[in-house]
Amino acid sequence: xxxxxxxxxxxxxxxxxxxxxxxxxxxxxxxxxxxxxxxxxxxxxxxxxxxxxxxxxxxxxxxxxxxxxxxxxxxxxxxxxxxxxxxxxxxxxxxx
Length: 96
Known about the structure:
By secondary structure, the chain is mainly β. The protein has a single domain (9-95), classed as PH-domain like (Roll). Helices cover 0% and strands 61% of the residues. The protein has strands at 9-22, 25-38, 44-49, 55-60, 67-70, 79-86, 89-95. The mean pLDDT is 90.
């Protein structure tokens, strides 16, 4: 099965739960491994659902992207939040 990643190198891979901001609420996209891949046309973030391997995130990196990391003492409070373009629309994501 070809995945489209055959000519890419995985620079970083982290397991987590992905959320997407829709309106004023966070919507869960799924659980899986978020990969930072390079070697294609442009570096990209790629994440597949852990159970059915459906792609839940596939965005190219660009110079204006932002990313923040938050860590507190509360349980489950470590997360990375980042912005990306999905279908030409600016979208906010959180990975916990």
